[in-house]
Specification:
Elements lengths: L2 H14 L3 H10 L2 H10 L15 E9 L8 E7 L2 E2 L4 E3 L5 E5 L9 E10 L3 E10 L1 E6 L8 E8 L7 E10 L2
Parallel strand pairs: 1-10
Antiparallel strand pairs: 1-5, 2-3, 2-4, 2-6, 6-9, 7-10, 8-9
Length: about 180
């Protein structure tokens, strides 16, 4: 095999992203001269989808209660595009809990809307998003508190510490 032919073959293989097995398969179908022509006619392989580059990590949620009121449980789960990313967790005052988005489930874009589904134990009369970091709230549904409510969060990985979102939810109850 001539050195120029071999060099041309290697260049075409790299350009097309072909494995040695794929190149051998084409080689069996075409003679040497036609193989180079055939490879030159092919377009480079384009990835089916760009690799995910968005958020993965934790959302730390701290449940607080208004002074003089009772502690009530909060139930939370993270979603992306209507699909659950985490299991539901139960938050109990005063313990911070984490919802974890695994690297395999990372968001597809550097900037994306992550949705937190929350519902509250009976007896909660009000809720405030007291403090948050790593996202911008984009909207909250206004269902009764014992039903599912959804907080849309705009997450931009360029604006947060690696892998950490946080929030404090302050509940109030009838005294």
């Amino acid at each position: 095999m001539k050195a120029t032919y071999k060099l041309e073959l290697e260049q075409q293989q790299r350009r097309l992203g072909l494995s040695h097995k794929q190149l051998n398969r084409y080689d069996r179908k075409h003679n040497d001269h036609n193989l180079i022509k055939y490879l030159q006619s092919l377009e480079p392989k384009v990835e089916a989808s760009a690799p995910a580059t968005g958020f993965y990590g934790t959302l730390d949620i701290t449940p607080e209660k208004q002074a003089g009121t009772h502690a009530k449980d909060i139930y939370a789960r993270l979603y992306y595009n209507g699909n659950p990313l985490t299991n539901e967790i139960t938050l109990r005052h005063p313990h911070t809990q984490q919802l974890t988005v695994n690297i395999a489930d990372r968001l597809p874009d550097r900037e994306a809307i992550l949705t937190l589904r929350v519902r509250f134990e009976a007896g909660v009369t009000g809720v405030d998003l007291d403090a948050y970091a790593g996202f911008e709230p984009q909207g909250l549904t206004n269902n009764p508190l014992t039903e599912n409510n959804y907080l849309s969060m705009l997450v931009n990985i360029g604006n947060l510490d690696p892998g950490v979102l946080s929030m404090t939810l302050v509940t109030s109850t009838a005294e």
